[in-house]
Specification:
Blueprint: H1 3-15, H2 18-25, H3 29-43, E1 48-49, E2 56-57, H4 59-87, E3 92-98, H5 104-116, E4 121-127, H6 132-137, E5 143-147, E6 155-170, H7 174-178, H8 184-187, E7 192-195, E8 213-216, H9 219-227, E9 232-236, H10 237-245, E10 249-251, E11 262-270, H11 277-288
Parallel strand pairs: 3-4, 3-5, 7-8
Antiparallel strand pairs: 1-2, 5-11, 6-9, 6-10, 6-11
Length: 291
């Protein structure tokens, strides 16, 4: 049994006739007919019922045809993979980013890269805080977008965007009526909602030490808890722009806490890990992008 025989079988079924199959495969009709006859002899069964004007699959032929399609698809995938490996393109490239940042510019850049390298699978991970570093360590991600709070020598990085955070509380909170700046001891009795990563080592920032806390693992849940009047916390401004304008959330000042901060996010990769052509192109696209 050969791939050419399976291709002949597929071409006859999908073309509807020997003539169409011969045209599609650029072969003569006798060549196609002999290929099918040899396949039938090798398998010891009839694939086509030739008593009709058009070649009609026997029940056994129908079953073989379905499997033939699977084999031919796998063979094509094998060829595509070999071609990809020969050109040096990676089979997959992972990118991990901190869930706080806007997703649209990231996906736009990934889309551009995918259009240029359609055979490479791009895997996208959203993590909390510095969580993407773990995906870099275990080889799942080649590129990261993380808050840059200190230099990490083993990483090469470039600026991606500055993200502004604001401490907020539900706009109908009595605290806003009683205080322009809430005393720390008063605030400690109100739940601060904190993003906590899957790793116990994931850092949290702006935490009011000694206060009550809610820990969640995504910003949408954090925002909803605050909007429901069940806590307070710091959120990226782009996530709460509408709620602030609609009067559902309000800025909160707490005694002794820093003013709303701007955090730099950077794209990073390991200096010691040579980038393949797809990962390198993705890096260049992010460098060229307007974020």
């Amino acid at each position: 049994m050969t791939l050419d025989q399976l291709k002949s079988l597929q071409a006859i079924v999908e073309g509807g006739s020997l003539r169409a199959a011969a045209q599609n495969l650029h072969r003569t009709q006798p060549t196609i007919s002999v290929a099918i006859k040899n396949l039938e002899d090798e398998l010891g069964l009839k694939i086509f019922d030739r008593e009709h004007y058009r070649n009609k699959l026997t029940p056994e032929g129908k079953a073989l045809y379905e499997h033939a399609k699977l084999v031919l698809n796998q063979a094509q995938s094998f060829k595509n993979l070999a071609k990809q490996l020969a050109t040096g393109e990676e089979q997959q490239v992972g990118i991990a980013f901190t869930s706080a940042i806007p997703v649209a510019p990231i996906i736009s850049t990934i889309r551009q890269c995918k259009s240029e390298f359609p055979r490479t699978r791009l895997e996208v991970y959203s993590e909390n805080g510095t969580g993407p570093l773990g995906l870099l360590e275990n080889g799942q991600a080649s590129l990261l977008i993380i808050p840059w709070l200190k230099n990490i020598e083993e990483l090469e990085s470039m600026h991606f965007m500055d993200l502004h955070f604001k401490s907020v509380i539900a706009a109908d909170s009595p605290l806003l009526q009683q205080y322009d700046e809430v005393p720390r001891e008063i605030m400690k009795r109100h739940h601060q909602v904190i993003i906590s990563g899957r790793k116990s080592s994931t850092a949290t920032y702006g935490v009011l030490e000694g206060g009550d806390q809610w820990r969640v693992n995504d910003f949408q849940t954090k925002k909803e808890i605050i909007m429901q009047g069940m806590g307070w916390g710091s959120l990226p401004e782009h996530l709460i722009k509408d709620e602030l304008e609609q009067g559902l959330l309000a800025p909160l000042k707490v005694e002794g806490t820093p003013a709303p901060q701007s955090v730099e996010f950077r794209i990073a990769r390991l200096r010691s890990d040579p980038a393949g052509p797809v990962a390198e192109r993705l890096w260049q696209l992010f460098r060229q992008g307007d974020h």
